[in-house]
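call fold(seq) -> tokens
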Amino acid sequence: MKYSKLAFTHSLHVGSLLVLLSACASNNEQKIEPETQASTVPNSILKGVVVERRKQDQRVLQDVNESKEMHAVHKVGIESDSLQEKSVLSHHRASKLSSKAAAKPKAKKHLNYFSGATAQLASSVVMPQVKHERVMGFYPDMDRENYAQFVQNPVKLSQSEPVSTFSIDVDTGSYSNVRRMITQGDLPPEQAVRIEEMINYFNYQYEAPKTTNQPFNIHTELAKSPWSGQHALLKIGLKGFLPVEAQRPAANLVFLLDVSGSMNAPDKLPLLKKSLLMLSRQLTAEDKVSIVVYAGASGVVLEPIAGNQTFEIEQALEKLSAGGSTNGQAGIHLAYQLAKQAHIPEGINRVILATDGDFNVGTRDVNALKKMIEEKRKSGTSLTTLGFGTGNYNDQLMEQLADVGNGQYAYIDTLKEARKVLVQELSATLMTIAKDVKIQVEFNPAHVSEYRLVGYENRALSREDFNNDKVDAGEIGAGHSVTAIYELALTGHGGASVDALRYQLETTPTKKANTDLAGEMAFIKFRYKAPNQQTSQLIKRAIVRPEKLSDFESASTDFRFAASVAHFGQVLKQSKYIDVDDYQVIIRHAAAAKGKDELGYRSEFIQLVRLASNLANHSG
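ret:
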């Protein structure tokens, strides 16, 4: 029965083609030379159209049958924990099937070569429309988006390289960007995953200092690793001082907004305007707001006004529309000029750059832009970057500009994320309590045979950079928490990945002065500058090896959750340094460490891991 219907359909198609061919030839009689009329539509081309028609009908029937089979399999075999997850999974195989229907380049080549009367015929033939959905799996826009390339930190021997030095990082853009990719149905590319930004996206219950005499408190914890039974994790946490809202200094904010054609999408300029409107409603009469826009050229949309003039700010934002090229350099110059004009002594002076990072006019070299921002920060004005959109997103540029501008980088994928960054964490986003914060850890080879810093690859510093106040490092905002995790191979516990040398002594030289330090496994030093100072201050702390290493399940809630996030990041990066890459283990550990979670961010993380697990299981 199915074959007879298909044959009947083909006969109709052939008849339709002949009628259309006759009509096209009639309409072009007076325009076509007599000697070319006979060759206008060769039999070989007509035969090719008919054959292509038959093949497409066969593929459509095959797709229908396979879609029915796919639906039955999904109905029985896939369990989801959210409606969004179900929606992504339900069209996964349909996406693959539609890509099969589109994968016939030779047949398309025949149809694309029609000309004259045959071109009219080709445009008249109605082919079945197949919606081309992207196949669920690894990120399809990798070639159009820009991410920095870096290699994961290697395992290092304490005997030969006992010192590790790096800059702190409070950026969170990588986590929200990775979340966007996964919720859209794609696992992120490895370069998009920066584990330190994933860990630091979440708040931890570290005790904050009571005064600004020391702007942050230090917390350390040691326990077994969840991804390697023979290794331990050392967690180092910092918690910044959080003033009450009334103590926040007045802020001079310049909104530097990209209104170029690349921002013409719902998740770009419209979301940007709503996000900044939320921020403006948190400001007071003591604050100042101005708006600069840039596309092919730049201009001032709103001169500096009081922060509580919400209506004027809203009106200025609502008038914005996207169009033109992107001259980011000109916009940045103008924004800093306006910031200087409205400068508040002893206040917060900050440019907030909101864009997809697609600079295509003016200075496009990353190093040149960084140099310009570095020069501008000397005037006392910081730069925060807010990333928007997908498809042409420049993550590398957004992160690096914020780093050299003494600011924070966040990626805004939803209005909920805008509220987190610009409302709930407003003080941390705007107010810097310590700058150029560096961490240096020296491991005692008598207790630690090997170590590896998880994340912070693009924050590494040379050993001599720690004491050099001219070397730039990261900033901590008011109330910010910063976490770093080291994976350790402790002596006597196995787990060493590097064999001992035959001709070298593997023990440290014994010195009488070091007998009192025998119990120390590590020595941590911190350097930071007060926001308005150029000379750093030093904090030191020794970590004593416990008699018994705590099991992972006995560690604090914050330790277990931070380790679960680090574990997830390494699985996404397909790290060679983890023994366990089971998503279910991560889900179980994170769920047990969820804690109070009043705002639901940890619960959201658990759902994200579940969704990533399904994507990984069905991407092949």
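DSSP finds 19 helices and 18 strands in the chain.
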